[in-house]
Design a protein that fits this description.
- The complex is a heterodimer of chains A (118) and B (143).
- Chain A is an alpha/beta fold.
- Chain A is 34% helix and 25% strand.
- In chain A, helix 1 packs parallel to helix 2.
- The model of chain A has no long low-confidence stretch (mean pLDDT 91).
- Chain B has 3 helices and 5 strands; from the N terminus they run E-H-H-E-E-H-E-E.
- In chain B, strand 4 and strand 5 form a beta hairpin.
- In chain B, helix 1 packs antiparallel against helix 2 and helix 2 runs antiparallel to helix 3.
- The chains are: A alpha/beta (118), B alpha+beta (143).
- The interface between A and B is medium-sized, with 20 and 25 residues.
Amino acid sequence: MAEELKATVRHRGNLAIIDLKGDVTIFAEDAISKAYREASAKSPKRIALNFARSEYINSAGIAVIINVVTEARKNYGDTFIVGLTPHFQKIFKMVGLAQYAQILDAEEEIPIYSQSES
Amino acid sequence: MIDVTKRTVELYIPSELGFEKIAMASASAVAQRMGFPAERIEDLKTAISEACINAIEYGSEFDVSTAVLVILNLSNEELEINVVDQGKKEFTGENIEPGARENRRGWGIFLIKNLMDEVEFSKAPGGGNQIRMVIHLEKKDRP
């Protein structure tokens, strides 16, 4: 019934991007935490969560994201959330996630801070 | 868009996480036929999903042998949704707030209250918990 979440990590210069594919629910907690640890292992300066391939996000998933984003914010400073539909952008702002992360439409909107991030 | 003076759709879903998506899809199809704009349908999908998850977690305590009842009452002015559970654990809607970030159910109730036009928590006639939600159809979208 639920589409299992797959979380994979990419690095673009000093930016780590966690791509999420599938349902962001309580069952996604392990996959997201594991991906966050993998992203952290390369000591990035910034972290982004990409929801472009996640269509279903519920409150339990939001709680998981809040925990990861507050942790990332504490450890890395700039944190980004990209790829959300307008509805989930509204929801994420409603629950206060905009205090901890910049919510942008697409990955391409993440500002490039260094030459190595091309 | 259809003219609905008064019609009802009833749906039973198993008390198992994931089946809330069936209720979401059904409510979405009904709301689309009634003429709700896409943005409001997304609000409805999130609210009904959270109400069903709440019923599965609290009212049925994940007992898959039980069901959650979802009733959609259609009229020309609004869509009323009732989500009724087994009432294994009492739920008033007032006892969970999103004070703590890890409070998952708190966020669910918070979202329901913020996305729907009317929300009411009560005891169902059969003894379970009941969440009644209403979403109004704006005049310009009515048949």
